[in-house]
Structures are given as C-alpha cells and as structure tokens.
Amino acid sequence: MSSLNFSPLVPVIDANVCVGNHHTGPSPCQSPAQLLEEMDFHGVRRAVIYHAQGEQISPTDGNLYLEDWLDGEGRLIPQWSVAPVDTSMKQIAELHSQGRAKSARLHDCQSAGLPFLPWGYDDLLSFLSEAGIPLWIPLMYVEVDHLVTTLKAYPDLRTVLIGAHYTHALVVRGLLDASPHAVLELSRYEPIGEVEALVDRFGADRFTYGSWYPRYAMGPILFYLHHTRMSKEDLAMICAGNTERLLGLTEGT
Question: Where does 13-247 sit in CATH, by number?
C-alpha cells in the first residue's frame, strides 16, 4: 500500500486565499497564525490573500481589514479589492504610490447591476494597465461575453481568471485564445485530463495554482496537479513561478 502522506515536490504559492469572516459565516482561520498553520500542513510556502468583506460588501473596508492579516514574515501577500468608484480608485492609487499594490481583485459589481464592460470600467482598467497591476477576476462575477469584449479593449491588462468550473469547459479555450495575457487559476477546474490538455495547448505559463481556501480545501487541487503527467518544470511554473512573475516577486519580497 502506498503512503497516504503528501508533500509538494516544488515550491508552492497559493494564488487565491480568502481571509476574515464572510457575511454568510465565520472563517475557520481567525488569525494569521492559524492560516499559516494550515499552509504549513499542505506545504504551501506563501499565499495571496484578500479579505472577505472586500469581495461583495465594500472593497475599501475589506482592504482596511486586510492590513490586520499581514504577517511579519511576508508569507501572506496582500491582494487589494477594487471597484470602479472614486473611493476605491483613490485607495488603490495610494497603495500603488506606496509600492504595495502587487495585484488587485475585482469586487462583485455585477450583483449591483454594473456589467463588466468598458463604459463602466474604463478609468479603473486604464489605471491598472498603465500601472502594471494584474487583476484577479472571479468568473462568477462577470458574463463571459462581457469579459472577452472588455479584455480585448485593454490588451496590456494582465489578468488571472478565478474559479473556472467544469461548467466553463466549453468556454475556457476561447477565453484563453481571446485573452493572450490572461492566466487561468485552477482551484475549481475539475474536468478529468483537462489541465494536461490545456497546458499542452497553451503552455504552462497560462495557469496557476490557487485553492480559494476556505471556500474549498487547500490541498485537493495541489495533490491533483502533482499526479498529472506534467513535467516537474511545468508543475513548478504552475505552483509558484507564474504567480511570482505576475506579482514581480523575488524571494523575501
């Protein structure tokens, strides 16, 4: 019988972790120390974190709460929520001026009636493009046709598409073809054999590991990636290298 123990073969950065309590319930991790313990259990070296309150309640308040989650070791990398409104734009511009805005995350404006189209997002997406700040986009908060239209209008905008599900299997290839600077985060991409097929077609640099913890467990997709037929070099890119590249990270930054 093979061992049930698992340790990653390559360095790992989780590109998609939520912290703080959501309005639907408390988080299983109530402190940075508890989150770091969970990461250590799975062999995750660093994590890109955003605050739950920034997702659907208030991007500016969520970002203020996020400050309390930043550990002194730099293992927890802040991701700032953004929306195309003046208060949020001012906040992200200030963070950028401080050299702290390595990435941004799209607030759910669709539920408030604003579609993800250039006429509603031009100021924000133009700023992010010019500043070189990559934008994480949860796929459930945008319409796919709006997403393609808007990304074509901002060809210099680097994006990470989050939460692709097996229900997106028919559109993923079109999305990646139409958006050459987009990277697909793999927390929910479960179709059997599809990760290998996508890597063969688009290259390993178009994909990144994220767990979307605690929405999902941190370990399963990481375990799955280690049991594909990808090379160790491709695995290393997906598990950490591509996130490091997107965020401009070097060891200790």
Answer: 3.20.20.140
**For residue 81, which of 69, 65, 98 has the smallest C-alpha distance?**
65
Strand spans (E) along 117-240 = 135-138, 159-162, 182-185, 207-208
Q: What is the pTM of this model?
A: 0.95
Determine the Cα–Cα distance for residues 227 and 232; give it in Å rounded to an integer.
11
Burial class (CB in 10 A: 0-12, 13-18, 19+), 208: buried
Instruction: Give me the helix-helix angle, 169-178 and 144-153, nearest 10°.
Output: 10
| Domain chopping of the chain, boundaries | 13-247
> Is the preceding peptide bond at 115 cis, omega within 30 degrees of 0?
no
For the chain of 253 residues, list the mean pLDDT of each consecutive stretch of 10: 74 97 88 96 97 93 96 92 97 97 96 95 98 97 95 97 88 94 92 90 97 94 92 96 93 54
Sequence-separated (6 or more) residues with CB below 8 Å from residue 201: 173
| Rounded-to-integer distance, Cα 94 and Cα 37, Å | 32
* Cα 7 to Cα 31, 41, 137, 187, 193, distances in angstroms: 24, 9, 29, 18, 22
Give residue 132's Cα distance to chain centre. 16
Q: Please count the other Cβ atoms lying within 10 Å of the Cβ belonging to residue 9.
A: 13
In whole angstroms, give the CA distance from residue 190 to residue 166.
6
Q: How far apart are CA 52 and CA 68, in angstroms?
A: 13
Burial of residue 48, with CB atoms counted within 10 A of its CB: 0-12 exposed, 13-18 middle, 19 or more buried: buried
